[in-house]
Amino acid sequence: MIASPDRTPLPREFFDRPVLDVAPDLLGRLLVRDTPDGPIALRLTEVEAYDGQNDPGSHAYRGRTARNEVMFGAPGHVYVYFTYGMWFCMNLVCGPEDRASAVLLRAGEIVEGAELARTRRLSARNDKELAKGPARLATALDVDRSLNGTDACATGSTPLRILHGAPVDPSQVRNGPRTGVSGEGGVHPWRYWVADDPTVSPYRAHVPRRRRS
C-alpha cells in the first residue's frame, strides 16, 4: 500500500514518447477503473514494452489490422486483446499516431476496491495475487474488449484513467526478457518491474502450444 499518491491525471504528452521510455516510467502509476459497483485502483508494478513494426513480438509487426487498429491511433488510449480463447489483456498506446507501439500492463497492487476485485478473482489465494499477471489484472479490473479504444487521458467521466501515482525510483526498476514471447521478439529485455515487489508475476519462457491430436 502506498501513502497519499498523487491523483493528478497523466497528460497525453506522457505517452507521446518512445515506448522504451514510457514503459519503466509507468511503474508506480495508478490505474483507476470505474465500474457500476464502484472504483478499483491499481498501482502498476510490472509492464512490457512492444515496439510496433520494429518488434517481431508486437501485434502490429505485420501492419494494421482490425484487431490492432487502436495501436495506430493517438497515444494514451487503451488497447485490449483477447488471447487463448479465454483471457483479455490490457495495453496503453504510446508514441505518435501511426507508430503503433504499446505497453502491456502485466501486474499491479490493488490499493482501492480490493473487495470488488476479489469477487472477480475467486481463485486468488491472497490480495497479492489479485492482479499478478496480465490476464489476472484485466479480470480483477473487469476489463474486456468493450473498453478497447478508451481514452485513458480523457477528462471527465471515463471508465479507465491513469493518474500520476508515486513513480518508482529508477534504482528499484529491473528489466529482463519478456514473458512467453517466442522467436526474435523473445530476446528483447523489455519487461520492467519493481524490485522485490510481491505482486510481480514470475518469468516464464515461451512454451510452444501442442496441437490436439
Order of helices and strands: EHHEEEEEHHEEE
What portion of residues belong to β-strands? Answer: 25-35%
Low-confidence stretches: none
Quaternary assembly:
single chain
**Count of DSSP-assigned helices:** 4
The description of the largest β-sheet is: 9 strands, antiparallel
Mean pLDDT over the full residue set? 91
Give the number of DSSP strands. Answer: 9
Structural class: mainly beta
Shape: globular
The proportion of residues forming helix, as a percent range, comes to 10-25%
User: How far is the first residue's CA from the last residue's CA?
Assistant: 48 Å
Pick out its properties.
213 residues; hydrolase activity, acting on glycosyl bonds; 4 helices; globular; mainly beta; 9 strands; single chain; 30% strand
Task: Present the secondary structure layout.
Blueprint: E1 6-9, H1 12-15, H2 19-25, E2 30-35, E3 38-50, E4 78-83, E5 87-94, E6 101-112, H3 114-120, H4 134-140, E7 160-165, E8 173-176, E9 191-194
Antiparallel strand pairs: 1-7, 2-3, 2-7, 3-6, 3-9, 4-5, 5-6, 8-9
Quick structural overview:
The protein is mostly beta strands and 213 residues long. It is 12% helix and 30% strand.
Explain what you see.
- Residues 165-188 are annotated as: Disordered.
- Keywords: DNA damage, DNA repair, Glycosidase, Hydrolase.
- GO terms for molecular function: hydrolase activity, acting on glycosyl bonds.
- It is globular and about 40 Å long.
- Strands 1, 2, 3, 4, 5, 6, 7, 8 and 9 form a 9-stranded antiparallel sheet that branches.
- The chain has 4 helices and 9 strands, in the order βααβββββααβββ.
- The model has no long low-confidence stretch (mean pLDDT 91).
- Helices cover 12% and strands 30% of the residues.
- The relative contact order is 0.23.
- The longest helix is centred in the first third of the chain and has 7 residues, at 19-25.
- It is mostly beta strands and 213 residues long.
